[in-house]
Amino acid sequence: MENCDALPPRLSAGTARYIQYHTVKIIAGAWTIHVVLIIALKIFYDTMPGVSQETSWTLTNISYMAGSYLMFHWVQGIPFEFNAGAYDNLNMWEQIDNGDQYTPTKKFLLTVPIVLFLMSTHYTHYDLTYFIINCLAVLAVVIPKLPSSHRMRVGLFSVPEE
Amino acid sequence: MDLHDAYVLLNRSAGELSTRFQRVPGSQILLRYVKSSYQNDPVRSVVELCLFLFAVRYLLAPRYSTTQKGAVELTEEEIDELVEDWTPEPLVPGLTEVEQAENEKRPVIVGPTGPKVKLSNGRTVNNFASYNFFNFVSNELLKDRAVQTLRNYGAGACGPPNFYGTQDVHMDTERDIAKFLGMPACIIYAQAFSTISSVVPAFSKRGDIIVADKAVNFAIQKGLQISRSTIRWYEHNDMEDLERVLEQVKKDMARKPLTRRFIVTEGLFENIGDIVDLPAIIELKQRYKYRLILDESYSFGVLGRTGRGVTEHQNVDPQSVEMLVGSLAHGICSGGGFCAGSPEVVDHQRISSSAYVFSAALPAMLAVTTSETLKLLEGNPQVLTTLRENIRAFRTQMDRCEYVECTSALDNPVCIFILKRDGLEGRIFDNEEKVLMDIVDEALANGVMISRVKHIHETQGTKPFGWQCVPSFKACITIGHTKKEVEKAGSVTRQAVGKVMARLKK
Prior knowledge:
Largest interface: A-B, 30 and 27 residues
Keywords (chain A): Membrane, Transmembrane, Transmembrane helix
Subcellular location (chain A): Membrane
Strand content of chain B: 5-15%
Number of strands of chain B: 15
Pfam families (chain A): ORMDL
Distance between the termini of chain B: 111 Å
Oligomer: heterodimer
Membrane topology (chain A): Multi-pass membrane protein
Transmembrane segments (chain A): 26-45, 128-146
Number of strands of chain A: 0
Shape of chain B: elongated
Helix content of chain A: 55-70%
Largest sheet of chain A: none
Number of helices of chain A: 5
């Protein structure tokens, strides 16, 4: 969804306006889908038999964090290649808004996991184990979103590429 | 008393603040949340508070771009001042001493070109400076066919091949070249230079790997540059070094996503004149799973028993070369270029090779001339023998010269000569190009037109690190001269070299 922001650098004025108009619509959808997905996940875990409220919230939290980590920070490049590989080494978070920091989209996408974390710790009644799990999950998605992590590559068992 | 007053004031304002706060909608929920979240666990609450404060800070931070770094804000006056101070560099650097002298002395041909040409100063000289190896330039049959085609088809194709530019003759020519080479398919380009510099980027893109010979010609260098691929160089014609580079690439790319990989080299090298070791390269490319782009611009029509190029010369199956690129403007004396390969390789280029898509098709008469020339070559393979005899005659004369050596392969009609390092015997000269120019001028004064090998300026190509072309001059042998004339030209050139070297201070 955010790929529309990773457009080739030079466009005619008309094309840019057209894309801007449609980007606004796409961004609205891209924001909503996060909330929708979280609610859907919560309902899904609630319907599973034998899952307590605490576990359900924690599972929702972990699933969302894992999914967003995968989509924003793990996968690199773009699905439809027509820029001669210019975006091959960038993950989706780095492509959003051409790599600008503190943009509305980025602010929204950072707030969502934090709010979800605060909600889930609240509804797990501040159990220490749940808190630690949820806290680690939220840190895993918040740290790569920091401006200082931009284009930074960390390799645990291998040498990072860049 | 003052202290008491202040305490009362503080108390009152605190009470007022709390009542006001309670009037704000949702404040009860917040209070309840804070109370219940505290739960006698200050550490956890601190963590949550930090996270919350961080989110607030993030939300309030102003937007900035990571791509436009270090842009200094300048005032109008400062901008004016900078503009005032700025003196533009010349678009083209000024002429060097050698270039100036070259401009003054450049021979100008009057009338048609051929083995013997008339210069603007009225003298007739033997031409050893054109790629007119088989003297197709003076062939009356080809001339007739070209004129006939010109009458039928007009001068140009008037459109790119994909938009009305392709005519029946183009398709015939493509078929003829493919048949001549023994390749399944072929595509023709309108210009020789842009053929290879368009074929390379048509296949190799950013992130792909190209392993190229350090001595490749300028057109290939341009292609490599345009492709934006990762380029690794190997020492000229050094198969051990090629293997080392391939091994290195294999190691570097072991855990990375698979990319396209190419080896790019020339059949006969334009800058040096020697020949590629094709069987060794084919073996390495198959072992390391590379594709081979071979530029046969100078070897097509020249090497091999029947002029089928380096593949025939070294007994290699032409189909083991993925992209066989050649020129129709050199040995064939027509115009344009071609790339032969599998039907997939050829069809890919029809819509994604920029020189094919964006430039007008080859003029019909050049296409027809090409086909006719190939027929002539196939019909008279003895022209190759004659050419080789002439080459040998010239080189036998030059071999007796102690100051220069020939770097070209034996069958290469473009004989490239460099000054022998050990033959200089301590002669000191600051500009080798100038010495070579004197040799060329001396030969011309005696009725033999040869030329220096002109290298493109360092900054214009993607020069491999540490590679420097040795200044050289060349003589292009043609069958348009009799053996006696060639021998005479050889001895004239030899004497010219000797004379210039004798003039140099010991």
